[in-house]
Amino acid sequence: MIAIGFTLQPHLKTLELLAGVIEDEPDYYEVAPETLWRGGEGGFESNGFHRRFLALREHTGRPFVAHGVGFSLGSAQPDPKRRERWLTRMREDARTFEFGWYTDHHGVTVLDDHELILPLPVAMTAASAAAVRASLAQMQTCVADVGIENSVFYFHLGNPLDEPAFLAQILDAPRTHLLLDLHNVYTTALNAGFDPWEYVKRLPLERVIEIHVSGGADSDPAWLASGATRRLDSHDDAVPEEVWHMLERVLPRCANLRGVTLERMEGTVEPGDVALVREELRRARRIAGGR
Questions:
Q1: Helix/strand/coil (H, E, C) string of 188-242?
Q2: pTM for the structure as a whole
């Protein structure tokens, strides 16, 4: 049976509003480990949300998986001190939470010692693929099963429809996986003007360990002088019907899929959204063929 998961956000109001949903619906929880740390040059230590989520694990007995944001998988020459601080903390969390798998985003989140808010793309070259493979190998010193997620990029170094072949080039080692984010595909396809299914069918779907579904919104027309808008991967609204349809279509093709995870960003949940989030988790379960 394919498990259904939900992301836990480090935001008290969101956690309180969704407390019943979090208790009742998911089979597993997903966390971004670095949101559970504090510290810097001298190392990282756990914060209050780390303790809160560990208590939830002990209370429910449900497993956890990790989905990082800032390991910077695509960095060709990562700063060794920064990388070791992260790996040390990742190993400690992996022992504590017993993560089923650990994934991070495609791209770089550190450039010239500057920490970025969102991952930026890398050139789709053999050297770039080798850098990501090396990063994944380092992650495997923490958790045996690791993976890369197809990110949303708002500009591209090359043809975005070449990215599936690049991801396949990266995922050539045992126990390295793809996290297929369908809203990321949908967002990129809308912004770049291609058929999202054309991207999906080019992926190494046998490598998919997890699928993400989420919603988003259009950008403010005032952001660009032309008044044009872009689709945003903002995780702040209902999952679009197009994403649900892609999930139905791709599931039978993912032979090694372990989980489908619903994402919802902190600070975007109001009381009227609670029933929606519950139903989206149940819809994902129906599509996955569960109870």
A1: HHHHHCCCHHHHHHHCCHHHEEEEEECCCEECCHHHCCCCCCCEECCCCCCCCHH
A2: 0.96
